[in-house]
Design a protein that fits this description.
With 149 residues, this protein is α+β, with helices and mostly antiparallel strands. It is 26% helix and 28% strand. The strands form two sheets. It has a three-stranded mixed beta sheet with strand order 2-1-6, with no helix packed on it. A three-stranded antiparallel beta sheet has the order 3-4-5.
Length: 149
C-alpha cells in the first residue's frame, strides 16, 4: 500500500526566492496507528513467541535502553537501528559558569538500520484526495424524522 501525502502551500525557502513567494510541498499523512498490542500480535503470528512474550521483551528492551542511554552508550538494536541520547545547552563565557541546569533540548536520536533505510527507497506514494461532504438534494425531506401519515 502506498504512503499517503497531501499538498500544502508554504513559504518558498529557496535561495533568492521573493519574500512572499510560496510553493506546494508534500506533507506525509498517517494512515492510522498500530498499537503495541497489535504489534505484539502481528509479531507473534510469525514466530513461536506468544503476544505476551513479545510484550515482555519490548518492556525489558525499554528498561535496558533507559539505563544504557543514561550512561551515554549508543544502543544498537540489530537491523532496527541505533539509539543515542543527544542534547544541547545554553553557552557560558567560562567553564566555571556552566551548570547542568543549562542543558536543554534532551532527546533520543534514532538512526535506522540498513533494512529500514532501504525500505524507504522502495516505497510508493499516493496523493490523498480530500473527501467532499455529500450534497443533499432539494426537496428530499428530513430522513431522520420522516413524516408519518
Amino acid at each position: 500500500m502506498p504512503a499517503k501525502y497531501k499538498l500544502v502551500l508554504r513559504k518558498d525557502m529557496r535561495k533568492n526566492a521573493a519574500v512572499d513567494a510560496k510553493l506546494y510541498y508534500a506533507n506525509a499523512k498517517a494512515a492510522g496507528t498500530v498499537s503495541v498490542y497489535e504489534l505484539c500480535e502481528l509479531i507473534a503470528e510469525d514466530s513461536t513467541a506468544s503476544s505476551g512474550d513479545v510484550k515482555l521483551i519490548l518492556d525489558e528492551l525499554i528498561r535496558v535502553m533507559r539505563r544504557s542511554l543514561g550512561k551515554g552508550e549508543v544502543v544498537q538494536v540489530g537491523e532496527l537501528g541505533n539509539f543515542q541520547l543527544q542534547f544541547g545547552s545554553t553557552g557560558t563565557a567560562t567553564e566555571k559558569e556552566f551548570s547542568q541546569s543549562l542543558i536543554k533540548n534532551k532527546r533520543i536520536l534514532f538512526r535506522p538500520g540498513k533494512m529500514l533505510r532501504d525500505a524507504v527507497n522502495n516505497y510508493t506514494f499516493e496523493k490523498l484526495v480530500p473527501e467532499t461532504p455529500p450534497v443533499s438534494e432539494p426537496g428530499g425531506g428530513d430522513e431522520e424524522n420522516p413524516d408519518i401519515l
